[in-house]
Amino acid sequence: MAPSQEKANHTLTPPMGPGVQSPSLEEPTAAVPPPPPKPSQQGPATVTPTGAATGAPPEAVAQQGMYLTTSQGARLRSTDHALKAGPRGPVLLQDHHLREKISHFDHERIPERVVHARGSGAHGVFVANGRASKICRAAFLGKDVETPVFVRFSTVAGFRGSSDTVRDTRGFATKFYTSEGNYDLVGNNIPVFFIQEGIKFPDIVHAVKPEPDKEIPQAQSAHDTFWDFVSLHTEAQAHVAWSMSDRGIPLSFRMMEGFGIHTFRLMDAAGETCLVKFHWKPRQGVHSQVWEETQMSAGADPDFHRRDLYDAIDAGAYPSWDLGVQVMPDTPEEIFEGIDLLDPTKFIPEEVCPVEVIGTMTLNRRPTNFFAETEQVMFNPGNLVPGIDVTNDPLLQVRLFSYIDTQITRLGGPNFSQLPINRAHCPVNDMFRDGFHQDAVHGGVAPYKPNSLDGGNPAEADDDSSGYIDIPTPVAGNKVRELSATFDDHYSQATLFVRSLSSAERQHLTSAYTFELSKCYEEAIRVRQLQCLANIDADLCAEVARGLGLSAPQPTTPPGDVEPSPAVSQLGKKWPVVGRKIAVVVDSDTPPDAVASVREAIMNAGMLPFVTAPRGGKLGDVVVDRTFLTAASIEFDAALVMVAPVPAPDALPAFDAKSGQDTTGRAVDPRVVKMVAEMFRHCKAIAVTPGATSVLAAAGVHEDAPGMVVAEPVAAVAGLAGLLASHRVWERFPARVTHESS
C-alpha cells in the first residue's frame, strides 16, 4: 500500500467532549458512582509498588463510592459552608473538614521540571519485529513481543504554562515497561545537542531561560543571553541550526522524529557488542508549522500540540512511530566515518549508515489523570535493561546522575519509582527502605547483603536469570579537565545540515536567524553570530547579514565540502493522510445530505472533517463542529469550501474582530475570506465547489494557483488527499535563497 493511501484499520470518530456522557441541564441530585474512564483513556497499570500485578481494573485506584468523604473515608453532609459560631459568626478552628480541604489545596502544586516543564503524555504499545535480536539480548526486542509504553513530549525552555508552539527543541521520552525492568529512551526531536559536556548544562539552560532581571522573554531563544552564549560556545552551532529550521516548530507531536542523541552499546546473546544510535520515525510524516502559524497558535490556542495529540487519540487516528537503529562497529576508537561517536553534537547521516527498523510504537490511550501520569512520570537514561548499556559520551554520563537527582526534590523524596506511572511491571526487590512517601510494605528483617535471616533473599542474578551486565570496556587515562581533539570541529555538521535543506527550508532558516538576531539589543552579539554563520555557509551568512543591516564577515574557519544528507530534509516525500483535519465550510442553507456525504468521504479517506458554519447546532443530523466565530485556519490542514456564505449576523467588529472593520456590501462572510487567505498564504491545500469560487476571489486567490482544487464536494476530497500527502504546496511561493556555496 502506498504511504499516501495508508488508512487507519479502525473507525475514526470526531473528538469527544470532556465527560463520558452529556450532562443534564439541571444539577444532579441523586447519588451515582464515579464515572468510568473514557474509551480513549488509560491509567497506569495496576501493579504494586514492588511490581506485582494486582488484576484490579485501572479505575480501582481512582476515587470510590457515591458519597463525598474526608480523606479518611468519613461521609460529609456539606462542603459549601465552613463551621461557624452562628450564621454571621467567626469560623471555628475545630472545622476538621475545612482544615483538611484547605491544607491539601495549599500543597497541591509541586515544583515543575527545570527544563521540559511543558509536556504532554500518552500510553501505547511497542511491538518488536525481531530484527534487533541479532544485535541485542533485551527481551522486549524479541520478535512480536508487545511492551506497554508511556511517552512524554515536551518543550525545553518554557515554564509549565507556556505555549506549545514556540520555537524550541522538543523532548521525546519513552518509558518501556519491559519484563526485565523499565527501560527509558530519553531523547529529543533533534539528533544533536547544544553542548558536548554535561557540566555545561546549567550554562545553556540559564542562557535560554528568561533573563533574570525581567523574567522575559518566556519560552523563547530570541534574546541576548541565549545568542551571547551560543555565539561564544560554538559547539552549540549545529544544534542552533536545527532549532532555527522548521524542525524547531513542528506541526504536531504526532509528526516529529525522535532521536536518542547519544551512542549506546548493545550486547547480543553471545556477548558480541555494537554501537547504535536510536531513531523514532513517525509514520504520519515529519511536518512543521510555518512561522506565522506558530505565532497565531501561541495566542489563539497555547495548548495546540496537546490538543492535537489527544484529539487524534480520541478520534481513533492513533499516531505511530517506527523505532530504528543505526548500527556501527564497536571499535576501540569509537569513531565512525570520521565522526566521534561520543560527541553528542554530531549525528551520522542516514546515507552513510542506514536506519534499520526494529519495531513500531502506537499511542492509543491518553492519560486518565494528567498530574498523576504526565506530571509525575520520571525518566532516566540510566534505566536500562540487559543488552543495552551506555557509552562514555560526556553529556550522557552526567545525565545518568542529573535525572535521578532532580526527582528527589520535585517528587518529594527517593521513592518516586513507586508512583503508579513509574512502577516496573516485573518483580522489584531492591532492598531500599523507608523515606518519604514509602508505598510498599516490605517484609522480612534483612534488607542487606549478605544475609541468612531472610534465607539469602534477594539472590544476585546470573546469566541464566537475565542479570544486567555492565558491558566490560577498557578504561585508561589521567585525570584531566579536557576533551579529545576529535570534539574540536564545531561547524562542519552545521554546514552539512544547512546544505541538506530544500530551497523553501533554507528560506525559512534564513528568516528564523534574522528574526531571532533582530531581537538582540547588542550589536556585538549579532556580529559575533554572523561570524559563526560565515564559518557555516557563506550564502546563509550573507542573507542574514542583509536582513540585519550588517556586513557579512569572512570566515575564520572556511566551510569545507560536505556531502548533503537528503534524509535531513522534511520535503519531497509522500506521507499518509490519516488524521489530517479538514474544514468543511457550509452555510445554513447547505443541504444536510450533501454535508453528510462529504463527511463520510473525508472519514473514509482516513481524515477528520470539521463542519464549519455560521452558527452552532446541527444541519439536519450533522453536528456543527466549528462556527465562523470559533474556527481558526491554524487548526486545519486543508479546507473544502462547499458554499460562498454571505456575512452572518455576527460578522461585525463588535461581535467578532475577525470580521474586520467593514462588512457592508460584502458578498462573502469576511471570516471565511480571512481563513482561506491565511491557508493560502500558509501553503495549505484548498478545495472549492464550482459555486463557491467567489470565496477565492474575495480572498485574492486565483483558482488556478498551485494546490487549488475546484470540483464537486465528494470529488474534491480525493484532490485534497492527494495534495496533503505532500503536506503543503510549497511551489505556491518559490524560494529565493541562493545556493552558490552548495
TrEMBL record:
Task: Report the EC code(s) recorded for this entry.
Answer: 1.11.1.6
Q: Which UniProt keywords apply?
A: Heme, Hydrogen peroxide, Iron, Metal-binding, Oxidoreductase, Peroxidase
Identify the catalytic residues. 116, 188
Q: Name one GO cellular component term.
A: cytosol
Highest taxon listed in the record's lineage: Bacteria
In what ranges is there compositional bias, type Low complexity?
43-57
Quote the Pfam families the UniProt record gives: Catalase (PF00199), Catalase-rel (PF06628), Catalase_C (PF18011)
Every Catalase core domain range = 69-457
Per UniProt, where does heme bind? 113, 152, 201, 399, 403, 410
Question: PROSITE patterns given for it?
Answer: CATALASE_1, CATALASE_2, CATALASE_3
Known function: Decomposes hydrogen peroxide into water and oxygen; serves to protect cells from the toxic effects of hydrogen peroxide.
Protein's name in the database:
Catalase
Organism in which the protein naturally occurs: Tessaracoccus antarcticus
